[in-house]
Amino acid sequence: MLRLTEIRLPLDHPADELRNAILKRLGIAAAALQGFTIFRRGYDARKRNAIVLVYTVDAEVENEGALLKKNIPHVAIAPDMSYRYVAQAPQGLSERPVVIGTGPCGIFAGLLLAQMGCRPIILERGKEVRERTRDTWGLWRKGKLDPESNVQFGEGGAGTFSDGKLHSQIKDPKFYGRKVLTEFVKAGAPEEIMYVSKPHIGTFRLVGMVEEMRHEMERLGAEIRFQSRVEDIEIDGGKVRGVVLANGERIATSHVVLAVGHSARDTFEMLHKRGVYMEAKPFSIGFRIEHPQSVIDRARLGPNAGNPVLGAADYKLVHHAGNGRSVYSFCMCPGGTVVAATSEAGRVVTNGMSQYSRNERNANSGIVVGITPDDYPGDVLAGVEFQRKWEARAFELGGRSYHAPAQRVGDFLAGRSSTHLGEVLPSYTPGVTPTDLSTALPDYAIAAIREALPAFDKQIKGFAMDDAVLTGVETRTSSPVRIRRGEDFQSINTRGLYPAGEGAGYAGGILSAAVDGIEVAEAVALAITAQQVTQ
Ligand code: FAD
User: What interhelical angle do 382-397 and 265-273 show, nearest 10?
Assistant: First the structure.
């Protein structure tokens, strides 16, 4: 199989033009091309009036060797990206590994362990995804929070009510991202996620996929338990011996995958108390910003705004502020909504989600400022307290009803409180309270965002428009701690504990968390099967 890269065609090219381009690139007759698949399709919008589609294709041809010898530019042998299991557990394996959490990391750790015959026990504090959806809507519609069943907690993890963006900048030399996408498609994701350059799934489909993956794990011998919060972990002589659930039940095991996400604050506290090594790490804080999607489409795609091949436009922005802080756009959701994402009572947290169609009226993204442990001195969990402080402040500013504090960008930049909102209707529910956000975050963050918005307006005309809306606060951008692990994926001071995914500081986003889940599952499966052999 040959891989051809950099095939550039006009946005509105007829379907057979891609085939012709392959033949032309390779200099072969039509009969010599046995078949091809699109490996990647992106677009180059640097010239908004002449946007081109950029393809990478894998082609099956006659006389592949002879063509390779010609050294044609942008033609190479296609890498083998198929996934191979590293272990297969023997029948009757006595040891069952435990996976804590059913976010993308826990699901992929659980799925891979099940596929390798390890029959994992998977424990999730929240509810199964349909019940969880009802509870989450309870906060969004009625301002009623269930601290154990919400945007952060429950089957599918934090990314279930999301845009389902699947791109990631992780290094992936073993093509594990491909395995993730393949499993997602098997579970019901649209086929195009295999080849579009910035795939997304949208929240509606994610719910069905999560359910399907659960059924698959169960078919393979996994046991999945909901409303099963792990409240303690038994460690003896530096080794894990088991976990204890909130109802007091003890599960003995010497292999625990810890995939609890960045909001499991009580679990971080428990692990810290038990002496599991962790350290404070940088994360980011800021606001969500909303614009009409049409403003973003026009600025990014010019006359091609609205073209169905391109879909709703996105953006990625960075500004290095004069006070030394970096401000950047985070988790941009084209045609989506801002969502209430707290898991704790008396706090307000924002995030964003969308449906697959991305056809809501507003674009939103986090506009966040990088911070480090120097900004929140204290013990290893000081970052959690720092997040809580600003989330509680947002709750106050919003009127203590889970409404989010909001401000027009024009007012924010002019330093005056908003008394009303304008043309851009905020999408956050249960509602927003127009106010002054200048005390909603530390001064340095406010100053950096005030400087960044006009700078962003130079790249996207209208970005700092008066009526754009800021909603606060965005604090759960990544984990405030890293639970250190060694080369063998085990905690550096607790054998048998495998810190994984976003909560442990080893992933940021759905795809990278899922890939981390695969890597950790491999480490666990190898350790368990080796242990079985030596017994
Ligand atoms: P999580 O998904 O957080 O899962 C952790 C799970 O562990 C949870 O289900 C939790 O209930 C469970 N748990 C915690 N403590 C315990 C315990 N003690 N016992 C038992 N279970 C426990 N990323 C993207 O790449 N693209 C996006 O479009 C995107 N949009 C997002 C939108 C929203 C609203 C949110 C909140 C996040 C979004 N993210 C997105 C981020 C993404 O969801 C996370 O990076 C990803 O889910 C992290 O995966 P994880 O498995 O490590 O942790």
Answer: 150
pLDDT at 532: 65
CATH number of the domain encompassing residue 235? 3.50.50.60
Helices (H) and strands (E) in the chain, counts: 12, 23
For residue 89, is it within any domain? no
Is 93 part of any domain?
no
Kindly give the distance from the C-alpha atom of residue 154 to the centroid of ligand 1, in angstroms, as a whole number. Answer: 9
534 has pLDDT over 60: no
Q: Which of 77, 108, 123 is the last residue of a domain?
A: 77
Residue 345, domain extent: 282-474
Q: Indicate whether 186 pLDDT > 90.
A: yes
Three-state SS string across 185-245, please? HHCCCCHHHHCECCCECCHHHHHHHHHHHHHHHHHCCCEEECCCCEEEEEEECCEEEEEEE
CA–CA separation, 32 and 19 (whole Å): 12
**Per-residue pLDDT reduced to its tens digit, 419-445:** 999 999 999 999 999 999 999 999 999
pLDDT at 353 over 60: yes
Are 105 and 38 within one domain? no
Amino acid 398: pLDDT: 98
Determine the pLDDT at residue 162: 86
Q: Is the pLDDT of residue 202 over 90?
A: no
Residues with CB under 6 A from ligand 1: 100-106, 123-126, 151, 153-154, 157-159, 161-165, 229-230, 259-261, 264, 267, 331, 339, 341, 351-353, 501-503, 507-511, 513
Say if residue 461 is in the same domain as residue 333: yes
Sequence-ordered strand ranges (E) for 80-180:
98-100, 121-123
Classified as helix, coil or strand, 250 is: strand
Q: In this structure, what DSSP letter does residue 489 have? A: S
For a mutational test of ligand 1's pocket, the pick from 127, 135, 162, 481, i.e. the residue with the most ligand atoms closer than 8 A to its C-beta, is 162
pLDDT over 70 at 122, yes or no:
yes
What tokens does 212 get?
């399907």
Look at the chain and report how many structural domains it folds into.
3
Q: Which two tokens stand for residue 2?
A: 């040959």
Q: Are residues 24 and 173 in the same domain?
A: no
Quote the mean pLDDT of the chain. 96
| Separation CA 478–CA 281 (nearest Å) | 9
In angstroms, rounded to a whole number, what is the distance separating the alpha carbons of residues 250 and 242? 7
Q: Do both 239 and 383 map to the same domain?
A: no
- Whether residues 30 and 171 share a domain: the answer is no
Q: Tell me whether residue 82 is in a domain.
A: no
Q: Which atom of ligand 1 is nearest to the CA of 228?
A: 20
